[in-house]
Amino acid sequence: AAHFRVLSLLNNQRDIVTGLVSNGRLEAADGEKILGLFLNTLPLRLELSGGLWSDLVKQAFDVERECLSWRRYPLAELQKSGQPLFDT
Predict the structure, then answer these.
(1) Which terminal CB of the chain, N or C, has fewer other CB atoms within 10 Å?
(2) Which long-range contacts (C-beta less than 8 Å, at least 24 apart) are formed by 12-17?
(3) pTM
């Protein structure tokens, strides 16, 4: 939440997109035994409403939770458009 707030202030924008690094390791039996780097970065977008800090924290938590189902979607696929994905 603080990260979004600082970006909002620095960019003078309420609509912020940042990168969320997520764990894409398989959640199957013995998944922890598979070698390799299973990190993925997803764009996380939040439009700050200008309320209380507690509201911003809840809003950021909700947006991050909604993003979890996409945590294994390849960043390379998103980058094919050639457009910038993140404000950071």
Answers:
(1) C
(2) 13/87, 14/47, 14/48, 14/49, 14/50, 15/45, 15/46, 15/47, 15/48, 16/45, 16/46, 16/47, 16/48, 16/87, 17/43, 17/44, 17/45, 17/46, 17/85, 17/86, 17/87
(3) 0.76
Q: Which amino acid is at 9?
A: L
pLDDT digits 0-9 by tens, 41-74:
889 999 998 789 999 999 999 999 998 888 888 8
Could you give the CA distance from residue 16 to residue 14 in angstroms, rounded to a whole number? 6
Which residue, 42, 51, 40, is CA-closest to 8?
Answer: 51
Q: Which two tokens stand for residue 31?
A: 């998944």
Is residue 83 packed enough to be buried (19+ CB in 10 Å), middle (13-18) or exposed (0-12)? exposed
Residue bearing tokens 């991050």 = 64
